[in-house]
Design a protein that fits this description.
This protein is mainly alpha-helical. The two termini are 30 Å apart. It has a domain of 73 residues. The protein has 4 helices and no strands.
């Protein structure tokens, strides 16, 4: 699947709109920031389980890896929503903060 960052953000926003409507969630500035923190915590918890440093229950390695992948997706989606809500151009920010170091590289 090849999509642009803008297309990906738009798709994530549509899913978020459905979620907010179904669960009667009011998404304000705090909600976007707090959801980022929530999803980051869930990713860390999934990683700890995958690496044998958290309670795994009856799940096997494949299930734990899948759970961690799901949490990566959740965190990325929330980050895209946060950036969209706060009108952050992610590609421009990456270019000025990260990719500037690639200029002139051989």
């Amino acid at each position: 699947m090849t999509v642009t960052l803008a297309e990906l953000t738009q798709r994530v926003a549509r899913v978020s709109d459905i979620y907010a409507r179904r669960c009667d969630i009011r998404r304000d500035d705090d909600w976007y920031a707090l959801k980022l923190q929530e999803e980051a915590g869930e990713l860390v918890a999934a990683y700890l389980k995958l690496t044998g440093r958290g309670r795994t229950g009856e799940t096997g390695p494949a299930e734990r890896r899948s759970a961690m992948a799901d949490e990566v997706a959740d965190l990325l989606a929330q980050l895209l929503l946060f950036a969209r809500h706060h009108e952050v151009d992610v590609l421009s920010a990456l270019d000025s903060k990260w990719f500037v170091h690639l200029r002139g590289e051989s």
